[in-house]
Design a protein that fits this description.
4 helices, mainly alpha
Length: 124
């Protein structure tokens, strides 16, 4: 048994070499519509998704951030890029710069709480 991302496991799932049991995401994947979520199976509070984003250093001028955001958004809409991401179980996002920043802050706080509550220390 293992926990893995759909992007790295999808080829093995499609070939039949791996049998997924559930998704840790809050909702089912369009690529694996018959696969339940852990929440649907009664395991609540274990939501975990993989996300990717483009980050810049603090203080990057806003026009540069906006240009990078626009280029990334345009790239994610290319049919071949969209198809590739969806084929790996991904769902290309459409977050604004502010929405992405807020999601990042929320995830940082969420994982900080988990680390503190589990008393996880470096090297442990």
């Amino acid at each position: 048994m293992m926990f893995d991302t759909t992007s790295s496991a999808m080829a093995h799932i499609k070939s039949g070499r791996l049998r997924p049991l559930a998704l840790t995401a809050p909702r089912r994947s369009p690529e694996l519509p018959d696969l339940p979520t852990l929440g649907e199976l009664g395991v609540n509070g274990a939501d975990m998704t993989t996300w990717y984003g483009m980050l810049v250093t603090g203080g990057t001028p806003r026009p540069i951030v906006e240009r990078l955001h626009a280029l990334l958004a345009r790239t994610l809409k290319l049919p071949d890029v969209d198809a590739r991401l969806r084929g790996l179980g991904g769902e290309p996002g459409n977050l604004s710069i502010e929405q992405f920043a807020e999601m990042n802050r929320t995830e940082y706080a969420r994982f900080g709480t988990l680390i503190r509550e589990a008393n996880i220390k470096p090297g442990s």
